[in-house]
Amino acid sequence: MKITYATMSVDNEELNQAYEKAVEAVKDRLGDSYGVWVNGEERTDRPTFRETSPIDRDLVVGEYAQATTADVDDAVAAAKAFKGEWENWGWERRRDLMLAAADLMEEQTFELAALMSYEVGKNRLEALGDVAETVEFLRYYSKQITEHDGFVTPLSSLSENETNVSVLRPFGVWAVISPFNFPLALSGGPSTGALITGNTVVLKPSNAGALMALEYYRIMREAGLPEGALHVLTGGDDVGDHLAHHEDVDGLTFTGASSGG
What we know:
Number of helices: 8
Strand order of the largest sheet: 10-9-8-11
Largest sheet: 4 strands, parallel
Shape: globular
Strand content: 15-25%
Order of helices and strands: HEEEEEHHHHEEEHEHEHE
Helix content: 40-55%
Distance between the termini: 38 Å
């Protein structure tokens, strides 16, 4: 059964059994502590934010280290230092990694959806749809870059002695600031789009929903993503503000609202 946001019925015994089994299986992962990830290093010696489940406020989802502005500077510097090497990987190699990550994520769909339900209170279909959308981002962007030959487009020439080509080039360091309401799709989707086109990424998720961003990071690393390509900074508004206005950040995807609404 293919799950999308348009799936309106849970009258599927196999789906329900798999989801409910996952709900029980992931319980022992709740309440774990997590650091910020900078250039492959987990930094845990920071003040923490305790995320509790909207389902049961006595249930701790996770304890997240709160990044400092120095962590932001280090992550951006590491991303900047690696951007040339990441671009030189070439789009085919980056695409193959994204497809491998899609397969890994799809294999873990029910466990990720169960964790998401605990974390932000989504019902089973919403949570499964969020995971499925993220898998689709990985595959859709891979398909697009393949069909367009890495977005290298031959152009017309005035004579036989010249060759003109339009080449897609990455911006460099891309920041992603993601919200709580689609915690996997809106952290993983923009990050995937930036990564596959050769940008390095610094991801700052909402503290409510941070576990899904960390799960995205885990899966990407398991698929073979090098440590310099993606960095994850859990933290509050001060971290997001410093990242968004950093002089060495070349582009930004922000999903949310200003303080004025």
